[in-house]
Amino acid sequence: MEEYSQEDWGNHSQDLHGYPTDQELDEIPVTKRTLKIKQESSEEAQKRDIMQNIVQILESVQLKWELFQSWTDFSRLHLSNKLAIFGIGYNTRWKEDIRYHYAEISSQVPLGKRLREYFNSEKPEGRIIMTRVQKMNWKNVYYKFLEITISEARCLELHMEIDWIPIAHSKPTGGNVVQYLLPGGIPKSPGLYAIGYEECIERPPSPHVERRTLDPGKEGRVDLETLSAQASLQVEIEPTRIIYCYLGIAEVRTLQQCLFLHFQANTKTFSKDWVGINGFLSQNCIVDPGVSPKSIYIKFVEVERDFLSAGSLVECLEKAIGYPLKYNN
Question: What ranges does the record give for the region Disordered, renumbered to this chain (predicted)?
Fold first, then answer.
């Protein structure tokens, strides 16, 4: 670790915390400064959402907090080479309840090494914890962890870090049947994939809108147009919620082959007796005139074949999203 004198700490305190000096701020154009702030705010919000999701998983499996006593605890054999979801907690002299300071999925670095960084005062993460204990902001520090397999780590990555890809569809052919149009670039390799659909949220019109639509005359017509524009704007900014309904494991076949079988073969060999995910996708292809099918989405992540048989992948994803996968049961 690079050594700093007391003078260095004083002269470079702003740089060490990542903040530019006043002079540097004056040299940055306002537009670039605004964009940078917006980008940083977006990244922070995303990190906070991921951490809340990890906390939700840790809470759902009801793990017990362990009191931190010495960072040599993390050299124990059962922690030295494990992957895990872990949380760091604390309490105060005024409130014994343990609260989360941080939570993370340690999917690349062994758990023992990652935890030591949080309890080593020479590391940035550990310095924060040490300072808060020394200043009596905190009383005790705790940790908890849930061991996971490599495939479970990739499954959580699929959920938290991989974006959904919308599946396009053709115009109705043969009367009332549409066909899915899979995107290019699906890997010819083993891995995990998820299928979801867009949740339709019908919001009832507000009493204010209903009252204004009953106003007669020219003024009423102008108000209707204004309200219509406002309603359209509200629909556009309403976030789309995609519901997971199936988790697939491409172990024997490739990701490309598995998704092709779900989305392409079923439209040609449709049977009303089909159940499960293929039945859902096939029935979604049959539409009434003027009605579009449900919006379907996919996401996938490559995983080495040898790792795919380990772990409880469906239960892992269900804990992460907070509801059961309809077509995996």
Answer: 1-23
